[in-house]
Design a protein that fits this description.
This protein is an alpha+beta fold and 470 residues long. Helices cover 13% and strands 31% of the residues. The strands form 6 sheets. The chain has a 5-stranded mixed β-sheet. The chain has a 4-stranded antiparallel β-sheet with strand order 1-2-5-6, with no helix packed on it. Strand 3 and strand 4 (185-186) form a beta hairpin. It is globular. It binds 2-acetamido-2-deoxy-beta-D-glucopyranose (2 copies).
Length: 470
């Protein structure tokens, strides 16, 4: 029921037919409003553009600009194999296979596109010409002895003492097989491969720094088990190099982290123990050492439906009781964490086994969250390239000293038919510009800078970076 309010102030703009109605006031109010709106939009736009230019200045090193050019790929799916009868041709045409199906098909005519053969291998000793220092994502990459680098699911440590980079990863140079009918393709544990480099291109094999257990079947690292995604950080307080990894049984039911330690970046690492961190299942994982020396474990949990993050003890040999649940219900794995100008960023993949899927970038003010999902960071290639992280899966993001805002995105192009022949996809990653997906907690305003990973068939780091770092 509508009550008449006798105390209501009469408004000047009440405009009933035949009553006092000030038309000029109305018009001028309207004009005023429009002017205000126009001014507001002008200010907004100027602010936006100015903001972006400033961001670019702050966030992108000019030496990196040429790597931010968008490079397209045009890959045609070949016509279907085999003869088709004229009768079949009359029927509805067969749905063309997708590029992802071609990628997973061992006998695909496009095999050489995804897995170029050894003739095109990157050979740092032989290619000391004008091909030097070029990365060719997906090509076989040889070490200084001429053997394919075996450091899958890897990560890189920069060692201040030796002033070298150390690349650790799964050494998978063994036969691929299935433990039973329903099991995923696997290679027995051989150990963690280690490679050293000053220029991030010429890698010397430093050996297998954590080796599998051959005989004791009860050992976590018995060859029949699983060792994935080893990552190493240095502890200033103890002077030890600490390795964390995903340790599992062949059926992925153990879902634990393993910890190993060494006095030297080139090992040998002593395996300490495994555990379910905070009492939870833990599969794909990474560790991140913050500027203040506090390190964190980030792992997929609750059957990969969410991620957990928590600080390590001061000696980095265990987690603490602090743990936060992040990206709940988002089903992400393969986390790669990095930090820029006080903001934490993370790249993750979806959970589709060895098959590639879409990467997502996430950002947070605090490593413990809340984390926000910003969208797919991949730029260039073609649509399928972008939807499959360039047919690869994230494993690590390496900051480039001297090039603030510039990183190397490291990913694995898994070859489930022959896992040892999985390839590395390294690409330039930059932070800057506006995010392109409306976010959950900020009413659609982009709070975070965009994370961009640029596809390149062939690229290299700026010259001056190398000179400074050699
Ligand atoms: C090296 O550079 C020269 C001149 O730019 C070019 O002709 C030659 O093909 C290059 N060699 C390789 C191996 O790319
Ligand atoms: C893995 O699962 C298969 C089939 O369910 C079973 O036969 C096998 O014993 C299991 N292996 C391990 C190591 O648990």
């Amino acid at each position: 029921m509508r009550m008449k309010n006798k105390y209501r102030k009469p408004t000047t703009l009440r405009c009933n037919a035949g009553t006092r109605c000030s038309f000029p006031v109305m018009v001028w109010s309207l004009v005023g409003c429009l002017l205000m709106l126009h001014l507001y939009s002008l200010v907004c736009r100027k602010h936006g553009v100015g903001g972006e230019i400033q961001m670019r200045k702050d966030h992108h090193h000019p030496l990196f600009h040429e790597l931010e050019e968008v490079e397209e790929e045009d890959i045609r799916i070949p016509p279907p194999k085999g003869k088709r009868s004229p009768r079949a041709a009359k029927r509805r045409p067969k749905r063309p296979t997708t590029l992802i199906e071609e990628f997973l098909d061992e006998s695909s005519q496009l095999r050489h596109v995804f897995f170029p053969d050894e003739k095109t291998a990157i050979h740092p000793m032989k290619d000391a010409t004008n091909e030097s220092f070029y990365y060719y994502p997906g090509r076989i990459w040889l070490d200084t002895d001429g053997n394919p680098i075996q450091a899958h699911g890897g990560g890189i440590l920069y060692d201040e003492k030796s002033r070298k980079y150390y690349w650790y990863g799964e050494f998978k140079d063994g036969p691929t097989y299935h433990a039973h009918k329903k099991a995923a393709a696997r290679v027995d544990i051989i150990g963690v491969g280690c490679y050293s480099s000053k220029d991030l291109w010429t890698w010397k094999h430093e050996g297998i720094v954590l080796v599998a257990e051959e005989t004791d079947e009860t050992h976590d690292l018995h060859k029949s088990n699983v060792l994935e995604r080893p990552k190493v950080i240095y502890n200033e307080k103890t002077g030890k190099y600490v390795m964390w990894m995903h340790v599992d049984d062949a059926n992925y039911t153990k879902a634990s982290v393993g910890i190993a330690v060494s006095d030297s970046p080139t090992g040998p690492f002593d395996y300490l123990y495994s555990k379910r961190p905070h009492g939870f299942d833990s599969r794909d994982m990474t560790i991140f050492k913050d500027d203040d020396g506090v390190a964190y474990l980030i792992y997929s949990s609750e059957d990969n439906s969410e991620l957990h993050v928590g600080p390590l003890n001061p000696d980095y040999l265990d987690v603490t009781r602090v743990m936060r649940t992040i990206l709940v219900g988002q089903h992400r794995e393969a986390p790669a964490v990095f930090k820029y100008q006080g903001t934490y960023y993370m790249i993750t993949s979806g959970c589709t086994g060895w098959a590639p899927n879409e990467a997502l970038a996430h950002a947070s003010e605090s490593i413990l969250g809340p984390w926000e999902t910003m969208g797919n960071p991949c730029i260039g290639g073609n649509k399928v390239f972008r939807q499959t992280t360039f047919f690869a899966q994230s494993t690590f993001v390496l900051p480039l000293p001297g090039l603030p805002g510039s990183f190397i995105f490291m990913a694995d192009r898994w070859n489930p038919a022959d896992l040892r022949d999985s390839r590395y996809v390294w690409l330039p990653l930059t932070v800057g510009g506006a995010a392109d997906r409306p976010l959950d907690y900020n009413f659609g305003f982009p709070l975070w800078s965009r994370v961009s990973i640029y596809w390149h068939k062939r690229w290299r780091l700026p010259y001056t970076w190398k000179e400074k770092n050699q």
